Amino acid sequence: MIAYIGLGSNLGDRQLYIYRGVESLHRHPLLTVERCSSLYETAPVGLTDQPYFLNMVVMVRTELNPLELLDLLLQVEQSLGRVRDIRWGPRTIDLDLLIYGNMSVQADRLELPHPRMRERAFVLIPLIEIWEQDEVPDHSSILQAYEYTDGKEDVHLWLKTNWRSELGRFVN
After folding, report:
1. Beta-bridge partners for 5
2. Is residue 150 among the annotated active site residues?
3. How confident is the prediction for the chain on average, in pLDDT?
4. Can you point out the beta strands (E) in 49-140?
5. 84, 85, 87, 91: the active-site residue
6. Is position 82 annotated as part of the catalytic site?
7. C-alpha dihedral over 91, 97, 99, 103, to 10 degrees?
8. Is residue 138 annotated as part of the catalytic site, yes or no?
C-alpha cells in the first residue's frame, strides 16, 4: 500500500532528526521509502513561541496496516527522543500519517486522511511536490486547500535534498 508521512523537527539538529526518522522508516522490513520532498523551514502553528520547524513529506510503500504503521511512527518518535508534554510544543521529531491509500478511517487512535492536513501549508507544499495525484484520494480538494493556504503561512524552501546520498554526512 502507498502511504504519505509528514515529518517535522524544531529542536536540536533538525535536519539530522528528520533524516534519522526517514532512515528508521526505510530500515523497517515491511516498508520502503520511495520519494522524499525537499526540506521546508516553517513557522510554528498553534503554539507560536518556539523555534521554526523543518518539514518534509515522504511517500512509502508498506505491507503494514494503518494502525501498525501508526505504531511504527510512534516508535520512531520515541527512539529519537520525542517528548509529548505540551500540545503543539517543540519536538525533536514528529511523524504524522497523512494518507494511507484510498482509506478513510475514523477511530480513536487514527483519523485518515489526516484531519488537519488541508489546513497546513507546511504539509500541503511538500506533499504536492512528491505526489502522484492518482495515489491520493480526493486530490482536487487538496489542490483547492493548497490554493487557499498558499502564502498564508511562513513556509520556505530550505534545502532540496536527496536523503539517501546526504544521510551519511549526518548519521554515524
Report:
1. 58, 97
2. no
3. 86
4. 53-62, 94-100, 105-106, 111-112
5. 91
6. yes
7. -150
8. no
Q: Which of 94, 134, 154, 169 is catalytic?
A: 94
Strands 94-100 and 2-9: antiparallel
- Residue 91 annotated to the active site: yes
Q: How far is residue 14's CA from residue 4's CA, in Å, rounded to a whole number? A: 20
User: Could you give the percent of the chain with pLDDT greater than 90?
Assistant: 52
Which residue type, as a one-letter code, is found at position 93? I
pLDDT of 115-125, one tens digit each?
788 788 899 99
Which residue in the list 13, 20, 49, 96 is annotated as catalytic?
96
Phi, psi (deg, nearest 5) at residue 81:
80, 20
Does a cis peptide bond (omega within 30 degrees of 0) precede residue 113? yes
pLDDT-derived band at 149, boundaries 50, 70, 90: low
The SS3 call for residue 98 is: strand
**Dihedral sign, Cα of residue 70, residue 73, residue 79, residue 83:** negative
